[in-house]
Amino acid sequence: MKPSLTRTDFPVVYTISTRWNDNDHYGHINNATYFEYLDSAVNGWLMQATETDIRDLSAIGIVASTGCDYFAEIGFPDVLEIGLATSRIGTSSITYQLGVFRAGDPALRALGYFVHVYVDAVSRKPVPIPDPIRDAVEQLPRIDRPQA
Question: Where do the DSSP E strands lie in 2-148?
């Protein structure tokens, strides 16, 4: 799949710096590390956007599904902009579309998706998305995942 999305499709970003130990033996960021960036971007942005420590809510977002397509390498010492969008907001789940960009570069390096299912923090049974979370994510742009 050739990326058709660019940085302008993701007006909301969370900035992350790569770390020395993120590079693998081949001299670029290991594919598994992208998932750490995506997880940190979603949860870090939610904390900023809601002005709430989301770990203290009665419902928590559990990752139910995640994936990533890679288009160009990144490495240390890159500064990344993780663009946030949604493709679906349901009753108890949110599907994010996450663009990975080098800061200042419009070219999409990777496109990830990330599904949060909200569950009661104690019982772990699905519950509706908490209002502060829903209010924040409804402000994100909608991007449908490109088909391969």
Answer: 13-17, 59-70, 79-89, 93-102, 110-120
